[in-house]
Amino acid sequence: MRPIQSILIANRGEIALRILRTCKRLGIEPVAIYSELDRNELFVRYASRAFLLEGETPLSCYLDGTQIVQIALKAGCQAIHPGYGFLSEQANFARQVEEAGLVFIGPTPDCME
User: Fold this and answer.
1) How far is the C-alpha of 24 from the C-alpha of 20, rounded, in Å?
2) 3-state DSSP percent of the chain in helix, strand and coil, to 5
3) Longest dimension (CA), the chain
4) Alpha carbon 62 to chain centroid distance?
5) Architecture of the domain whose range is 6-108
6) Minimal CB count within 10 Å: which of 10, 30, 43, 89?
7) Other Cβ atoms closer than 10 A to 113
8) How many CB atoms lie within 10 A of CB 27?
């Protein structure tokens, strides 16, 4: 397995900020995603790069696994950290991440099922 150089953080707020800080301490580039409502939040400004999610509501944005995987690939990330809530406990999302050739930082899809 190649070393992880950048991680897409598939979450928002304080949890995203904590993951971002840890990534920076480990020398890993943290990449954020955000909804229009979160545009000016600290976690967006703290990230090395940040990508706007398209969707009608913040919830629909952060639950759009296909869009999130596409952004991770576009950004050149090797992994996705789901944080907690949203997609973190969805086996289908973990499987989608792995099928895209990315590392899912969390339990395996089989464990979640």
Assistant:
1) 6
2) 45, 15, 40
3) 37
4) 9
5) 3-Layer(aba) Sandwich (3.40)
6) 89
7) 10
8) 8
Does residue 105 surpass a pLDDT of 90? yes
Q: What 8-state DSSP symbol labels residue 41?
A: S
- Residue corresponding to tokens 């944005």: 61
Burial 54-93 (b: 16+ CB within 10 A, else e): eeeeeeebbbbbebbbebbeebebbbbbbbeebbbebeeb
Q: How far apart are the two ends of the chain, measured CA to CA in Å?
A: 25
Task: Indicate the pLDDT class of residue 86, thresholds 50, 70 and 90.
Answer: confident
Strand order in the sheet with 79-81: 49-52, 29-34, 6-9, 79-81, 103-104
pTM greater than 0.70: yes
- Band (pLDDT 50/70/90 cuts) for residue 80 is very high
49 forms bridges with which residues in the sheet? 31
pLDDT band at residue 3 under the 50/70/90 scheme: confident
Q: Alpha-carbon distance 45 to 34, whole Å? A: 11
